[in-house]
Specification:
Helix content is about 20%, strand content about 45%. The protein has five helices and 14 strands. It has helices at about 1-25, 65-70, 150-155, 190-215, 225-245, and strands spanning about 30-55, 80-105, 115, 120-125, 160-170, 175-190, 250-260, 270-275, 280, 290-300, 320-335, 335-355, 365-370, 375-380. The protein has a five-stranded antiparallel sheet, with no helix packed on it. A four-stranded antiparallel sheet has the order 3-4-13-14, with no helix packed on it. The protein has a three-stranded antiparallel sheet with strand order 2-1-7. A hairpin with a 3-residue loop joins strand 8 (about 270-275) and strand 9.
Length: about 375
């Protein structure tokens, strides 16, 4: 019995010693310094633009709109016009190529101490693991619509006419040759004005029929309200197609664009894109458009901020973060102000530092705003 108790005590001591060794290995001093590179962000302006493209098509009977319909407001030539419909300004954080930093740790180092975004921007230190959600924005692209107006597609009159001409055919008889009159039918293409006159006639016929239906002036009317509604709508649609042959067509579509601009410390602004009446929003180097500028008024909110001196301290043992600046941002198209917004601009502020020794206590965590590089919170 004593021998069994002795064996049990030995087993407990062996297991306890093993657990103690494992605990000691969880936090250990590394012989080789470990360096991680991270980046602070710069604020990049994203301008989302919605522009409307209007395609204008001249009707084939435009020259006769005044004569047959009394309409003078017509599309006189084919063309394209662009107009700005909406504009939105936002700032996002992107890697600042001038703000890459190293942090070197050789004591109690754990790979999970530092958290980065996929681009290498700092998210924080000692953060609890959390699943990141990638939200993709669906962008719908609208293609240009080709506008065609063909009279023959919906005309109820033939596009050719027939003319009877009298010709003479020589017929031989027993005694002589005589001329016999013969009627010949010739197919002729109608002139443009003749087609315009017929189209105008159909317009007035359609209006008359629609009026008679609306005033219940037909002997046989549609059987129910739905059929009544469809019939009136189709008559109006057909009339609209005929009228477009005179006044032309205008079709508008909207397209979305996005332009980027990276503000520089000390600058007042610049051209972010150009707006062309024929091509819509275009890049800065396309001189065919009118410039749309972005201008900054730096409010200098960090001018009085005192940064603690760190002379003689190894930069790799420091944690860097930003204290963002604030600016009034204006988008303008010539003298026309399109948008005004007050925004935080990371690179208009200052770079601050703290000793990396704060990371030795794993109970503390530091979380950044990845889009600005500023500290969000320090928690225990």
């Amino acid at each position: 019995m004593n021998r069994n108790i002795f064996k049990l005590l030995v087993a407990i001591l062996i297991v306890g010693g093993t657990i103690g060794n494992l605990s000691a290995q969880k936090r250990r001093t590394l012989e080789t310094p470990n360096t991680v590179i991270y980046a602070l962000p710069q604020t990049v302006l994203k301008v989302d633009v919605v522009a409307e493209k209007t395609i204008m098509k001249r009707g084939p009977f435009a020259d006769y709109a005044k004569k047959y319909l009394g309409i003078s407001d017509v599309v006189n030539s084919d063309g394209v016009e662009w107009k700005l419909k909406s504009i939105e300004l936002n700032g996002i954080g992107e890697v600042d190529p001038e703000q890459f930093h190293k942090i070197t740790t050789s004591v109690d180092y754990e790979p999970s101490l530092i958290a980065l975004t996929p681009e290498g921007l700092i998210r924080g230190f000692n953060l609890k693991k959390s699943a990141s959600v990638n939200v993709e924005k669906e962008v719908m692209k609208l293609s240009s619509e080709e506008i065609k107006m063909e009279y023959g597609k919906f005309s109820i009159d033939p596009i050719i006419k027939y003319r009877e001409d009298t010709t003479y055919k020589v017929v031989e008889t027993d005694t002589a040759f005589i001329k016999v009159p013969v009627l010949e039918k010739q197919a002729l293409t109608k002139s443009l004005e003749e087609k315009a006159e017929e189209a105008a006639h159909q317009i007035f016929k359609l209006r008359k029929r629609r009026f008679k239906i609306l005033s219940s002036n037909f002997e046989v009317l549609p059987p129910d309200g739905k059929a009544y509604e469809i019939l009136v709508k189709e008559l109006a649609k057909l009339e609209e197609e005929y009228i477009s042959m005179f006044v032309g067509k205008k079709v508008s579509i909207q397209k979305s664009y996005q332009f980027s601009y990276s503000p520089k410390q000390g600058e007042n602004g610049g051209v972010i894109f150009r707006m062309s009446p024929q091509m819509g929003p275009v890049e800065v180097n396309n001189l065919g458009g009118r410039p749309v500028r972005v201008d900054f008024k730096n409010l200098n909110v960090t001018n009085q901020l005192a940064i603690l001196p760190t002379a003689g301290v190894n930069p790799q043992s420091l944690i860097f973060y930003r204290v963002p600046g604030v600016a009034d941002v204006t988008l303008s198209n010539g003298k026309s102000v399109l948008l005004k917004k007050r925004m935080a601009i990371a690179q208009f502020g200052k770079i601050a530092k703290m000793p990396a020794e704060v990371l030795l206590n794993e109970d503390y965590s530091i979380e950044y705003y990845p889009e600005l590089g500023s500290i969000k919170e320090v928690t225990k």
